[in-house]
UniProtKB/TrEMBL annotation:
This is TauD/TfdA-like domain-containing protein. The lineage of its organism: Bacteria, Bacillati, Actinomycetota, Actinomycetes, Pseudonocardiales. It comes from the Bacteria. It holds the Pfam family TauD. Gene3D superfamilies: Clavaminate synthase-like. The keyword Iron applies. One of its GO terms (biological process) is antibiotic biosynthetic process. Its cofactor is Fe(2+). Residues 40-324 form the TauD/TfdA-like domain.
Amino acid sequence: MTSVGDRGDQMPVTEQIRVHPLHDEPFLLRVESDPPGPPLAEWIEGNREWVLDQLHRHGSVLFRGFTVAGPDGFGQAARAFSPRLLDYLERAAPRTEVADKVFTSTEFAADQWIPFHHEMSYAHNWPSRLYFYCDVPPTRGGATPVASERTVYPRIPAEVRERFLRHGVRYVRNYGPDIDLPWQEVFQTTDRDEVAGYCRESQMDFEWIGDDALRTTSVRQAVSRHPATGETVWFNHAHIFHVSNLPAEVSAVLVEEFGLDGLPRNAYYGDGTPIEDEVAGLVRQLYRDAAVSFPWQRGDVLLVDNWLASHAREPFEGERRILVAMSDLHLERSAR
């Protein structure tokens, strides 16, 4: 037997299974098997409580060398941890469902960075846990870095935290055939009444514009409290949706053509006051400074606690196919 962590919790270990933090840090635990390892779904099912404990301690867990039989096998491994996987509504990026509740990761151009974020922290509900599976590793780059909120949150200046805590974050999004995603893809329906019902239920203002465009406005939390550990974490999309996250030449063209209210997405303080560029930039930099990364190998599965760890995507070369599943829906009862 061997133990990891402070409480001495133990798991069955053979010479085939090794457990150690990545980069000698307490964040991102690696559980590695000599291939061909046991089926990951069966191994997780037999060690679920231990894995959950390690997830709360380390924020993310990488499984390597286990047997995962493609997208369906990945879905089985995720369901071994949480039986009910989630759909993906109120989308912020294009995705394709390749197996039951298993999606492609964000389908942005290969030469683009996807900044650090907590999945769906702009919404009124979000997944508690994320699962990533390397179906096809990239030729070069393409890592999925993670960053610990235990590192990032204390480094955000107190005056910045206090202002966001007072007001929350206001998100303005525009959907349509000519800008960003069409609302039909975002809400996975062609029925305007269904969209209206979703918006009302989630405390989101909405406005139909022209023939086929939609604008939504919502005020959400800036921080959130982990339901199991009790920790307070920075939990919002302000630094990503903020106009300063766009290249300067792109934002200039979009603002000139659509105006600030017509941008695909933008973020403000909850009272409608513009967020300063330097504040959004500071948060993005703090996440980059805290990044922990590893090169994907075929068959890798990364389990992420959506509160304790944010994630990103590096630019890449090659075919790269990383699949994603989500579980354990959390409903935020308050807009702040």
